[in-house]
Each structure stands twice: as structure tokens, then as C-alpha cells.
Specification:
The chain is an alpha+beta fold. The chain has 20 helices and 13 strands. α7 (216-236) crosses α8.
Length: 604
Amino acid sequence: MAKSFLVRAVFLFLLLPAVVSGALLDDYYLTKFGADAQRPKAVTAVVPGEVIPAERCRTQLYRSLKRDWNLLEPTTKRTLAKYVSRPFLANKATFLSPGGHFTIHYATTPVPAVTGSDAPDLTDADSDGVPDWIEKVAAVFDHVYNVEVTEMQYRQPPGSRYDVYLRDLVSERAFGFTTDDGAPPFPATSVVSYIEIDRAFTNPIFTETPSRTYTPEQVLQLTAAHEFHHAIQFGYNYYFDFWYAEVTATWMEDELYDSVNQLYDYLPSYLPKTSTLSLNAPLGDNSEYGRWIFNRYLAERHSPSLIRDIWVKLGTMPATADGSDIPMLPVIDTVIKANASTLAADFTGFAKRLYLRNWATHTSDIGLIPIVAPQATFTTSTVDVSQISAKIASLPKFAFAYYKFLPGIMAPADLTLTLLNVPAGVEIVAIKKGTNGTIQEYALQRASGTITVPSFNTTGTSEVQLIICNITSDPAPAAVTPVASSAGNTGGGCFIATAAYGSYLHPKVAGLRHFRDDHLLTNAPGRLFVSLYYRLSPPVARVIGEHEWMRVAARGLLVPLVLTVEHPGGALALLLLSGGGVLWRLKRRRLGMHLAPVSSKGAA
């Protein structure tokens, strides 16, 4: 009996992860679709008068639901069944767009109780038998088709006409979404889809943002441009990596409706995270919408057609055997290489442009792009190379960080940072900005581990920005050895001591830095000595750091200096005793010379 109980216990233990996983999946979709009526809802405090904006796009959620459908419990399937089929509209009417590309589906009836909540405004001011809003929806979608397919030459989605359904999406808090009719049978990749958008876009969750208020027509325009591009993407390849699908669909909004500028509202969800968030990170916190700015750079660096070429390339790729999505970074890299560059080079260029703000298009909107803040701003008395090294070693793939350096009265003529063992997948460049607006770039010299900016401490230098990009790995594959910074003072220097003790953070090195700051840099002779040390010691330090026996010898030679810094009182007493001993010996020597006996030969 005990054995039987043990067997059952082991079986339940092995089964538990699957049960929990399935339950979590059901809970996730029930919660996301707001259909979890059987479970108590958490009470969320809402600030009176605060409007929480709707979700930009739910295309990925609907695609995931269909993919995971067979993993859900029967009760969950019954609850969510309406979300995996084309929508039902009470007393549905249809309208063929004037361009013949879209069929607009909408609910209509003169009896509100029968109409339900999906019916749009049915006002027909021109009495042509079609509600004015429906005509506007059709005209907007025709315009989107003409730009994206006819002018920009993206592939038309499968089918002769595309279906657009108008629904009340306020309860889902969604502008709209594009839904596939099911994954294509292997090995096909193209799939038919349809779009659902809100019936009116009049609710404040669609029109109000922290920055401004938009009209329902503007929201319609952006939603049509965004969702129709998802339809195009489904036509190329069902197995697209969704972060780039949102990047491209959001970028497309401004290509069609440049004056609306709603996509700039998403940049604060990405730009403050450039040092912690990969370019190809999964969806979350709206950062995928904020990452549209990378496509802006690619379009300027090459051509807007390069974005299309990326999707064309994806369309030639076969379906994955396991049904997983095709990673987009290699696809992007392949297309960029065909345009005489690389993804690595363009990502570094992207980081530079965000700092320089020298955008070539949409120039009147540059002020809407937030400035990416540096990780730290260093004056010549606060440079901390170890902080920079730690950031280099922890950067996710395709992420970047800035560090700003400002000249000061104690700065050396040239700014030199020494960072050994920087991984090959990390690009480091310093940009010097002149007070007259001139820009000069200086790359890391990997052989010496240094990056030097000449004429740093001059009246013509405004600032130096250090830009660090991890362009291949996740995270950077090796720790970086911080050696020194000749920006002077608490953040750098002590080259030889750092090499001898093996770490910028070693207590002995820290003690020497404090001695430098508190005693040497407070007077002209001391500053002259430190300046000469910065210029002469880096090559010596590099040699010492490469040989253990030299590090041991250097530590031995530094013992007197370290003891003097750590115990100045004892050092002074020892100096006095030593000096006194020397004087006593000299005095005895002189006295001995005076008292020496005269030789007999001399006496004769």
C-alpha cells in the first residue's frame, strides 16, 4: 500500500508541471480577452479623469490564440470560440470600396435593441444609401492600398478583395488587429487574413494620449495603415518574427500619414531602454512600437525600399518544420549586405544618429524624438572606467549605451580611455562635438585597448560622447579589463598600480587615487607630475599587465609608496629617523676625519 501511494505521488509530481502550465495558458487568454467571468477580478485603482490608452494592436494575441488552441481546456475553448472565427455582425451590411480592393462589413438596423453595440454611426448625409462613416473607412483603406501596394510595391495580400470588419472594440481596449484564417498547411507560408477595427474611434481611449488629442479620422488612418501592413506580412510569410512586424507596421503609419505623428508617443517606451533592451526583444511595454525608429534609420541610410526587400526576402524562405517563427535579424542582415553594408554597421550608425540627431527625413519632427540620456556624465574629476567596463560586459545583443565627457580646468590636453579585452562583438566610438557644431569620430584602437580624443581640453570642445554597441552577442562574451582613463582624477589614472594589482577597484589602487586627488592635484607641481604620468605610464602598464612576474615585481616596487599613502604619520617618522641616521653618520664621518692621527711619514 505504501508503495502504491509512492507511485501515485511520483506520477502526480511528474504531471503537475503540465497541469500548471496548461492552467496558466488558459488563465492568460481568459484574462487577455476579458472573458474570465468565473474568477474574481482584481480591483485596479484608476485616477479620476485619467484615460488609459487602448492597445495599439492585438494581432499577435489573436495569432497566438489560434496557435495554442489545441492546448486549451474545453471550457476555455467554449468561452473563447468567437475569437477564433470571423466576427458575427447583427443585420450585417457590406460595402465594396470604390477602388474595388476592400469589402467593408458593418452592422446596421433601425432598431437599436437588435443592432447591438457593433453598429457604427449610420448617418447618410448625402442620401446615397451608404453611411458616411463607412464611405470614409473605404476611402481610407483604398488610399492605404494605393500607397503600400501600388506606390511602395509591397505584395498584395492573398485574395481579390480584402475583408474589413467594424466592431465595438472598446471592451477589448484595442484599436484593431489582423487575424489569419489559420496557419497554412506545411510547407506553404502565405495565408489569407482579415482586419477588425473599432467601429468609430470616438472613445477617449483611442483619441487621447498624454501628449495630444487625435480625431477619430486620424486614428482610423493610422489603424488602417498599420493593420493593412500586417495583412501584407501574412501574405509574405505566416512565420514572421513579431517584433519586426510591429516595427514595420508602426513605421508605415508615418510613411502614409506624416502629419498625424502619433507613433512618436511610443518612443519613450524604447529609447530610455537602449542599454538594457535588445533590438529584437519580444513584445512588451509597447517597446516594439517604439522600435519603429530603427526602420526610419534604415530607410534613410539606404532607401525605404530596403524595408520592403526584407519582407520580400522573408517571403522566399520556407516554413519552419516545428512551426516556429523565423528570426528576423539574420533576414535583415542578408538584405543589408546586399546593399553593401551589414546589420552590425547599420546598428552602430543608428546609435550615432540618435545622438547626433542628424535625421535626413521628417526633419520638422526631429524635436519629437526624445534625447537618449547617457548612462553617466563625467567631468574630469569623476571618470569611472570600471563603470563603463561593467556596462560593456553586460550589454544585451543589439543594445547600446552612451557616456558623456565634459572638459574641465584640470583635464589633460587629450582624453584617453584604456579598456583592455573589449570583445570583438562590441563597437566603441567616441564623438567629439565642437562648440561650433563640428563633429569628429575616434574609434577604439583594439591593439592597444585605447581610445584617444585629441584636443579634448580646449575652448573649442563642447563634449565627447562615448558610444558602445553590442552588435553580435547576448550579452557581451567577455569581461572587459578597466585599466585607466587619462581624463584625470578619481575616475582614472593609476595605470601602473591598476596593472600591478590586477583591478581598478583594488583597495591599494583606490588609496593611490585618493592621494593623487587630495594632494597632487591640489597644487601646480603635483598636477604637472600627474600630467606627465598620464602621458608616459600607459605603455608601461600594458606591458606589466601582460606578465605575471612583472606584476609581482611592480607590487614590490610600489610597497614604499603604498605604505607612505596608507600610513603617512609612520612614513614621516621613518623619514625623520632615516634622515637623522644619515645626518649622524655624516657627522661622525666628518668628526673622524678631523681626529684621524697624523702618519709618521707626514710628521717627519
